[in-house]
Design a protein that fits this description.
single chain, two-stranded antiparallel ribbon, elongated, 5-stranded mixed beta sheet, mainly beta
Length: 89
C-alpha cells in the first residue's frame, strides 16, 4: 500500500476486491486536530463524511479510493468557525 499509495500512509485503510474493481477506504485517526480558523486543537466530532479521492487503475483493475474525514467543533469562542473539516495532506 505505501508503495502504490504513499498519500494514504498514516491513515487506517480497508481494501476489498469485487470483480475487476478494487475499493480502498481510508479513514483518519481519532487524534485531536487544529481548527483551520484559529489552530485550537479539537477532538469533539460533529459528523463524518466521505470524499472520493480518485479513480485509477492498477494492472487493468479499476481502483476506487474514498477517504472518510471528520467535521469537528471548534472550542474557541473567539474563532469565527463553529465547525471545521479536518485536512489531510
Amino acid at each position: 500500500m505505501r508503495i502504490l499509495f504513499p498519500h494514504l500512509a498514516g491513515l487506517g485503510s480497508r481494501r476489498s476486491a469485487v470483480g475487476s474493481t478494487v475499493r480502498i477506504e481510508a479513514v483518519t485517526g481519532e487524534d485531536p486536530v487544529g481548527c483551520s480558523g484559529c489552530g485550537t486543537l479539537s477532538g469533539r466530532v460533529h459528523s463524518r463524511y466521505r470524499r472520493r479521492l480518485s479513480d485509477t487503475s492498477i494492472s487493468g483493475r479499476e481502483v476506487v479510493i474514498t477517504l472518510r474525514v471528520r467535521r469537528l467543533f471548534c472550542g474557541n469562542s473567539d474563532c469565527g468557525k463553529t465547525t471545521f473539516a479536518e485536512q489531510v495532506p
